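Hello, quick one for you while I still have it in my head. I'm working through a protein record and want to make sense of it properly. Would you mind checking whether the tokens look sensible for this chain? I owe you a coffee for this, so here goes:
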Amino acid sequence: MLAIGADHGGVNLKETIKNYLTERGVEFKDFGTFGTTSIDYPDIAKVVADSIVKGECEKGILICGTGIGVSISANKVKGIRAAHVTDTYSARMAKEHNNAHIICLGERITGCDLAVEIVKAYLDAEHLGGRHGVRVEKIMNIEKAE
């Protein structure tokens, strides 16, 4: 199950991505928002990240105006690795090398066609493990030390 969420600055792109997920047959849960009324992006990022930490969802997509705010917010949730991505290569590497739980996109900086390609690259990628797994473990150890 994939978690998806957006603030008011990313709600339109979220709908485009949901259409793609539906066409592809990807099961997802939409955590909102559902309109253009202002909402704080940390609130959406937290519920999406929490759904992954709790095991309700396996991975996620977060969207705000730039993708930066939701990325910073999601990374504050213990156990989460969220990557702000703006291209297909970064999306693929986020999964292959960093085993990112969440990719974060910006509606105001990423067009709909590119966003769908980014999501496709992320979903099609698999974590490579090996030396990359060692590095991910080191990242998680930094969090445990705090």
